[in-house]
Amino acid sequence: MHKFSTFLAVILFFSLNLCAQLNVYFVNVGQGDATYIELPSGGNVLIDGGPSSKSIYEFLKAKGVTKIDHVVLTHPHSDHYTGLKNVFTAFDVKNFYDSRLDNLSATGDNTLRELAATEPGCLTHYPESGSMLNWDRNVTVKVLNSCPEPAQSKNEHVINNCSMILRLYYNGNGLLFTGDAEAAIEHAITRVFKSGLESSVLKVSHHGSRYSSDAHFLERVQPKYAFISAGLNNSYGHPHKEAIDRLLAVGAKIFLTTSGTQSVTIPAPGNGMQPIIGIPLFYDPILIARPEFESIIYSPTVPLNGRGSAALEQLKEIEI
């Protein structure tokens, strides 16, 4: 009986430890953003939904999701909100986090907000910069940027800079989610928040645009792992070489959703603090075919996700 009790205790310990980790999935939704988070205490979060309903819906169904505790719309651009419409019709959503900015060039953001307003039991929140979100008793969640006051705009830069920026902190690791915020907001964050920006994991802003990932901002954040959500052969040319250069300059290892959904796990306390990466891919053949990346790809002085010269020689053999 004693042995059986010990066995059950061991099983329970490992089960609780597995649940206590923080899992983040940067979902491959093409040219857009969608991030799914499994919280240590069992709750879940969806930040943005991508440019169409199919990719995020299929991902969530494959994960066995029926309920989403927290849905965040970082800002009202269609590559972030379109997939969320189907989320509200297909899943039970408990909380919706939004800005009060109306995109005058679109109507889809209003449709999404109407769905949130009519979702049974769903509360809509407009958090202010500097506020804390009570998502999980073991995870600190802080809002670093938001637009909680009513406003209207059709200016792309204004809308991008209304992005809700969130920083999670768990087991010694910061995780920074930046929407499409541009350099002006990155500068503002470094002025307002004198500490508490350093983050092991960075969701790179604006799909790796040259207008974001400012050098001073990255110096303050010091990301070890940078995740870029972008579509293959997208018309914007994302990610831009300038952003990649700045990320590499601070020693970040870069991961792209063009190689598939990317994941990172922050282990439970007691299991170490080092994040665990699921699919460590960045330099895929389609990306390295772009001539503007040639100096990065084939420079022996630049580490390839920490894989060294052997990986460099393998890449040289890839047929493009």
Record the strand order, biggest sheet: 9-7-5-3-2-1-17-18
* Helix-residue proportion: 25-40%
How many strand segments? 18
Q: CATH homologous superfamily, by name? A: Ribonuclease Z/Hydroxyacylglutathione hydrolase-like
Spans of at least 5 consecutive residues with low confidence: 4-16, 297-320
On the 0-100 scale, what is the average pLDDT? 86
Structural class: alpha/beta
**Rg from Cα:** 20 Å
Order of SSEs, N→C?
HEEEHEEHEEEHEEEHEEHEHEHEEEHHH
**Per the principal axes of the C-alpha atoms, what is the gross shape?**
globular
CATH topology: Metallo-beta-lactamase, Chain A
- Work out the strand percent: 15-25%
CATH architecture: 4-Layer Sandwich
Task: Report the biggest beta sheet as strand number plus sense, adding barrel if it closes.
Answer: 8 strands, mixed
CATH class: Alpha Beta
The N- and C-terminal alpha carbons lie at a distance of 63 Å
Q: What is the number of helices?
A: 11
How many domains comprise the coordinates? 1
Brief description of this entry?
The chain is α/β, with parallel strands linked by helices. Helices cover 31% and strands 21% of the residues.
Plain-language structure description:
The chain has helices at 2-19, 53-62, 78-90, 108-118, 156-160, 183-192, 215-221, 241-249, 285-288, 294-297, 308-316, and strands at residues 22-26, 35-38, 44-47, 67-68, 70-72, 92-93, 95-97, 101-103, 123-125, 140-145, 151-153, 165-170, 173-177, 201-203, 225-228, 253-256, 262-266, 276-277. Helix 6 (183-192) links the parallel strand 13 and strand 14. The chain has one domain (21-282): Ribonuclease Z/Hydroxyacylglutathione hydrolase-like (Metallo-beta-lactamase, Chain A). The N and C termini lie far apart (63 Å). The radius of gyration is 20 Å and the shape is globular. The protein has an eight-stranded mixed beta sheet with strand order 9-7-5-3-2-1-17-18, with no helix packed on it. A six-stranded mixed beta sheet has the order 10-12-13-14-15-16, covered by helices on one side. A two-stranded parallel sheet has the order 4-6. The protein is of the alpha/beta class. The chain contains eleven helices and 18 strands.
